[in-house]
User: What shape does this take?
Amino acid sequence: MMESGFRSPLLDFFRRGDVARDVRLVAAQGALAPRAHEQLGLLVLLISDPDPEIAATAEATLQAIPREALEGFLARSDAPTELVEFFHARGIHPGPTPSPSADEPMIDTEPESKPEEEEEDSTSVLQRLAAMNVPQRLKRATKGTREERAVLIRDPNKMIAVAVLSSPKLTTTEVEAIARMANVSDEILRIIAMNRAWMKNYNVVWALAKNPKTPVPLSLNLLPRLAEKELRTLSSDRNVPDILRITARKKIVLDK
Assistant: This one.
């Protein structure tokens, strides 16, 4: 299995080998990942897929990426060494000018179906998503609207929920709202807590700390980052685990 040197929660599902064939085929077509790093990571991984059709499809998608775009990506300072070496072996080298952004896919195999600004009735969103299969919901998780993300973050298929966090359209406000949800997978909350950019936002930290679904060790680690006002709120919150409430009380006393 070829490694790209780039890791993400979505890519980890593929590395573990527990992704259904139809989903792997969609990823091999380049239609799943919304960002350059993740798209290339999936394609490089899937060219060694045991299914010949998937491996061939991933190879064809890689070959279809414009050379100039690849050279620009490889010239970026955040291009993983493994990817640079992989394409070097194929005769493709970093270009003279780095790509200014990696927030778009290297090759867009599926144009946007509707603008982000267009809002829908929540019932119609639910009905439409319920009629979709797993690959279709995965695409909407990474490329869909805010309303679709709000539904799919709670999808019983963990890979779909995780894919929402890979969407380049996801805002910090949405992350804060997700961190408050008590009906999402604890894996989602862990992923948020591991993202340095999101954790620079105090509201996200506070939302995770007071979420009863957040794993206790993670919540305890967040206490030192909370102001006294939030610590006092936690110390009397009957919805959070006892140990968190008691530790918050002790911290208030110690900090005085």
Q: What stands out?
A: Residues 9-88 form one domain. DSSP finds 17 helices and no strands in the chain. Residues 53 and 164 are 27 Å apart (CA to CA).
